Amino acid sequence: MTEMVYGAAPMRVGDPVLPRWWRTIDKWTLSSVLLLFSIGLLLGLASSPPLAARNGLDPFHYVERQAFFGFVALGVMMVTSMFSPDLIRRLGVLGFFAAFVALALLPVLGTDFGKGAVRWYSLGFASVQPSEFLKPGFIILAAWLMAASQEIGGPPGKSFSFAIAVVIVAFLAMQPDFGQSALILFAWGVMYFVAGAPFILLIGMAGLTMMAGTVAYYNSEHFARRIDGFLSPEIDPRTQLGYATNAIREGGFFGVGVGEGTVKQSLPDAHTDFIIAVAAEEYGLALVLVIIALYAVVVVRSLYRLMRERDPFIRLAGTGLACIFGVQAFINMGVAVRLLPAKGMTLPFVSYGGSSIIAGGILMGMLLALTRTRPQGEIGDILMRRGR
Amino acid sequence: MIRTPLRPLARILDARAKGQNPDAIERENLRVRHEQMRDQSRGRAEGRLLILGAVFLMAFGTVGARMGTLSASTPEEPRTAYTGSSILAQRADITDRNGNILATNLATHSLYAQPPFMIEKERAARKLVEIFPDLDEKRLIKDFTGKRKFLWIKKKISPEQMQQVHDLGEPGLMFGPREMRLYPNGSLAAHVLGGTSFGREGVHSAEVIGVAGVEKAFDSFLRDPANGGEPLRLSLDLTVQAATRRILYGGMKLMNAKGATSIMMDVHTGEVISVVSLPDFDPNDRPRPLTTGDQSDSPLFNRAVQGVYELGSTFKIFAVAQAMEQGLITPDTMIDTQGPLRWGKFRINDFHNYGPQLSATDVIVKSSNIGTARLAQQIGAEDQRTFLTKLGLLEPTALEMVEAPSIKPLLPPNWSELSAMTISYGHGLSASPMHLAAAYSTIVNGGYKVEPTLLAGGRPRGERVISEETSAAARDMLRQVVVRGTASFGEVEGYHVGGKTGTADKPKPNGGYYEDKVIATFASVFPAHDPRYVLIVTLDEPVETSGTEPRRTAGWTAVPVAAEIIRRTAPLLGLRPEIEPRPVYELTRVNN
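^ Those are the sequences you sent over. The predicted structure of the assembly is below.
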């Protein structure tokens, strides 16, 4: 009767958004990312004042910028993580095309910051590197194509996505930016692997790579010198790597103390590529292990949650995003400890860099959205023993 | 395994028979298949994701372990970026055969500016110009006040200049240690040494690299730290080189020649004892190459090695030696010298008419073109070519200078009989004086092939080219040329000089020969009976004007210069004069 008089109380169709978000989000990953961002700010306080002094800026100029961009990135991450997978797919594909156009127009409109490569658009107060935004977009697009190819009567999505990857790599190699091209290829390879690449092909490719590497080693003097220099136990203490290695040694297990480090004075890239050396020097192995553990938690937790995922698109996209995030961290730290040959790559969420941290926020937001708990037909599994 | 059909045909047919729409059954079937595929792919992906996760865990674990080992190791002592002393004495010295320094290094400084650190830029520019008058003040001010952050001002400065610049008290003017190449003997052996310049330059050091001569030919040896600074010992004798240069310079002026060159070579080892080419230059301040005109007029041009000339009658001994070696003649065989000798429309003439016949010795002594041309006809073009190749006259010399390998003798395009005849008296084939010195050494040393070298110690004895007897006979003929022939001014008492003159008209740049320009050459050997050294003296366009008419033949120009060189240098080389006691009964005619 009351309803007839006053009208029906508005009834919600689903749960409220925020509680559902909080219930389904992967809290381990989320807290790891937040912790990494705070560690980044903490290290920025140590590593960037010398650079600011060199550029004649306020000592904490870079920390302030990092904090500003970081909070923007965290906001972007939170919003993105609330999207549904379908919305992620649509926006990701659109974003990919936008970033791709931006990348293609770089030679015409881009700015060369005196580093010999045109990778940035200058927006006055900040600069944007389109390839950072291209990576998550590409992963979404490739995952969509690969998932579609698994449908009955679907398009040959694996070939399409590989062709797109090759085109992007060609554009990136023109800049030249071999680090980002390698990341794109790696992401595609991981997704292809999870989408069910034949093992014969994988073994064949591994063999071919080994053979090509051996041939290159014996035939190309330049390549051989790079590898020999990397393999030799001696290291010239005057190079960036030498400073970084020395800083890690100085730090020992518990560091020389907050603000007591010296490597930030001598390394021009202390706030980006070699920030792990600053961490190791001032806070010692303890903090470094914490950082490594946080990255490992993000990657392994995400992969674990994706294992239960039934939707091929979500599984592939999530895998690509988690792996590209993890491998970037791995390469950055591997270079600093000379596990890998020198290659400039930022440490996600920790290194300084406006466009890289916002792109990282988008990437992580997408990953969080894709790894949210969803009904996966567990009852069906239990009752019908499907999928086992 | 039970195969399930792709389409549930039985159910569809059943439905059709009942008049129902089979689409719903098809869709249902498709959905079920889809579900199955998804489950299957999920099962596969589960395993692969597990692998990925494990790989990532291992990778991060490796990084962590590596960090741990690095943290546990002790850090290296920080080293300074460079040590100032390490750049000094990088390049080895060059010495002569006795260890006298020909080229060494001097520690000096370069001067550079870093304008951002400068305080009083205009004053600094003004004061710098006072110290270095060759600098341009306006230019300096422009450089200092402009956008430049770094500029070189002087590559080498003296200690006094350094002190003066230091006293300016300008913090933006800085000094970088430098090693500079010093040639203490100035222009002596300039062409052999060549010169150096700076290669890659940094603030803390600069590479010194050879640009010519042995400095370039032995550049890697001189810069090789593995040699421990051991000097490069050349075959040159500094004393002989100095004496030769003085005499040759005087001779060149007296004979009004525009250029001169001399080579003294050990006949057995091929070691070059002295080599002079005039005009020369100071390698401490190497002049720039000529941009216009004839490069052979540049002081940088090394006539002894780079100059290829028709060397005239000096070649006659090769024809005669070959004829003797082949048994065609003996020194006493009479040879038809009736002139002129016609070959087609060409006529070969002698300087004087020497009558119908001359002995082979006299063909050399009197320098008869007709005689040697007839011998060349007997020998034949092919054999002559083979013989001259064996003497090394047709190939670049093996001398250790960067310039040498590119200097190829000029040969006639087709080696006809006429070419053979003219080549027998030194026309139609151009070679460098260095070629001639090596060939003469081969002829007189007993017949062993000699290749010239600039390194002390020489080369091992080469293969035999002519027999000991032929060599002895050739030496005797050369001696007779000095005793009673065209080179009578060449007699140096006690040193038994033998030799052969050669006067060749200079070719015009566009065909034909000059009437009044010659290349006069004297190729000599001393002592003739036991040869030790060959001396080649070549004068470019000499004119001797003491007589009533200008004389240009080698006997009047090159020979006296060579004689003076032998007279002065033979004692330096440790040769004792052998003076036969005069017969006591000889009467000395005295003019009243």
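Chain A has one domain: 26-371. The first helix of chain A runs from residue 2 to 6.

Shout if you want it in another format.
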